[in-house]
């Protein structure tokens, strides 16, 4: 992998992977393609733009440290490169909204926060 740094390591970027064999695009980092099994997928940085596929509002904190953040929105976003991403979203987001990724601190790390374009 070239530069794998993204929000999971504290950098304000969103990465995805592309299979060199079958061209399948996927988001959850793996050492092989979930479609065809080929190894060494290419890691790329997404534009951060996409469309909301689903959204839900979290009212009950999953851990005590998250209580200060509730309610917060979790969204599934289809990024323009072709992968579906789970992330945080601004409270006003609805299905079909065009969005772009920002980032915010959450529970000691950095998480993607999508907002309307
Ligand atoms: Zn593949």
Can you summarize this structure?
The protein is an all-beta fold and about 120 residues long. It has strands at about 15-20, 25, 40-45, 50-60, 70-80, 85-90, 100-105, 110-115.
Structural account:
The chain has strands spanning 15-18, 25-26, 42-45, 49-58, 72-79, 84-89, 98-106, 109-116. The chain is mainly β and 117 residues long. The strands form 2 sheets. It has a 5-stranded mixed beta barrel. Strands 2-1-3 form a 3-stranded antiparallel β-sheet, with no helix packed on it. The radius of gyration is 15 Å and the shape is globular. The termini are far apart. The protein binds zinc ion (ZN). Zinc ion binds next to loops.
How would the blueprint of this fold be written?
Layout: E1 15-18, E2 25-26, E3 42-45, E4 49-58, E5 72-79, E6 84-89, E7 98-106, E8 109-116
Parallel strand pairs: 6-8
Antiparallel strand pairs: 1-2, 1-3, 4-5, 4-7, 5-6, 7-8
The structure holds zinc ion.
């Amino acid at each position: 992998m070239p530069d794998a740094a993204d929000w999971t390591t504290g950098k304000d970027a969103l990465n995805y992977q592309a299979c060199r064999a079958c061209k399948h695009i996927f988001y959850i980092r793996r050492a092989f393609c979930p479609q065809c099994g080929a190894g060494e997928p290419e890691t790329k940085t997404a534009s951060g733009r996409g469309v909301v596929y689903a959204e839900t509002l979290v009212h009950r904190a999953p851990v005590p440290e998250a209580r200060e953040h509730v309610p917060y929105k979790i969204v599934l976003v289809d990024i323009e490169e072709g992968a579906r991403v789970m992330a945080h979203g601004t409270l006003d987001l609805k299905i079909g909204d065009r969005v772009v990724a920002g980032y915010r601190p959450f529970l000691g790390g950095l998480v993607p926060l999508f907002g309307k374009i």
